[in-house]
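Quick one: structure tokens for this chain, please?
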Amino acid sequence: MNTYQPNLTVVPWLDTTVESVGFGARSDYVEWFWLPVLGPSATWLLRRIDFGFDDFPNGYLLDTRATALSLGVAAREDTGTIFGRAVSRLQMFGVAQTARTGLAVRRVLPPVPHRHLQRMPHHLRSAHDNWLRDRRAAA
């Protein structure tokens, strides 16, 4: 998918398996453990898209220029911008995928895959283990 479009239709990516074990796009878990994987621009973009789903649960037309500017990144019309790379990163890491009508974006993310955890600093890996252990204990 071309990562730059002046308007981009975004729809929720529904996945009952991930939704049964995952974490909301705006959760502390995503901030602590997906942020090092996705990067800050992609994480903030995910959060902005997810906020839009609160008002438009079936999807909506995202104004890419206004969204880029609201995230504090360039709003040029090319794929090499930070905004374009953020969209690409969401796709690369399985948080978004090309859909028939635009871009399907997860509202719930799965636990971070082991291969990504291994690249994180030790304190984040330990915190992740504790996070999942506490979650299992609470269930």
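Residues 117 and 125 are 6 Å apart (CA to CA).
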